[in-house]
Amino acid sequence: MIEEAVDRLHAGDVVTLTGYIYTGRDAVLPRIVAAAENGTLQTLGIDLRGAVIFHTAVSPAGVGPTSSNKVEIESTIEPLSKAGVKLHLGKGAISRDTVEALRKYNAVYAVIPPVTALLGSQTVEQEVIAFPELGMEAMNRLKVVKYQAIIGAAKGISIYDRL
Fold it and tell me: 130: buried, middle or exposed (CB in 10 Å: 19+, 13-18, 0-12)?
């Protein structure tokens, strides 16, 4: 995603994603943050500038969002946004501090319904790209077609603030 596209997004908007996205959850995201901080992402073939990270594992059952407010996941949103990630895709409410961190780095958080079978049919390519020893929690690069999600936080506003 580019800066201009993120600038046009608001909490509650529906987006459709087509193209390559990264995956990660509890086990791999802290490792990706460490690689970003120590400058070794490039050696893994990962470029986070303008990237989308989907909070999920990839298993034979398919892909589906995991809770983004788990400490191991939510604590990575700010440093990954700083490293260039523009859209974090998952499920559930995130903290006010994380919403503000997204605003600071002009990134957004989108929620996607847990529809594993549907997302599996819209995932047309899958490749383990880092930390294969983590099994289904390894980082993957997916090619997706018409993933839909709702912007859950943008510009310092969260849809969960309305609850």
Answer: buried
CA distance 112 to 124: 18
Is 160 in contact with 152 (CB distance < 8 Å)?
yes
Residue 117, classed as helix, strand or coil, is helix
- Give me the residue spans of the domains in the chain: 3-157
Q: Are 143 and 124 in contact (CB under 8 A)?
A: yes
Residue 93 has φ and ψ, to the nearest 5°, of -70, 145
Task: Give me the CATH code for the 3-157 domain, please.
Answer: 3.20.130.10
Beta carbons within 8 Å of 99's beta carbon, 6+ residues apart: 109, 153, 156, 157, 158
* Tokens encoding 147: 């993933």
pTM: 0.79
**5-30 per-position pLDDT tens digit:** 898 999 989 999 999 999 999 999 99
Per-residue pLDDT reduced to its tens digit, 82-118? 999 999 999 999 999 999 999 999 999 999 876 776 7
Cα separation, 47 vs 28, whole angstroms: 15
Task: State the alpha helices, DSSP H only, in the chain.
Answer: 3-7, 29-38, 71-82, 96-104, 116-121
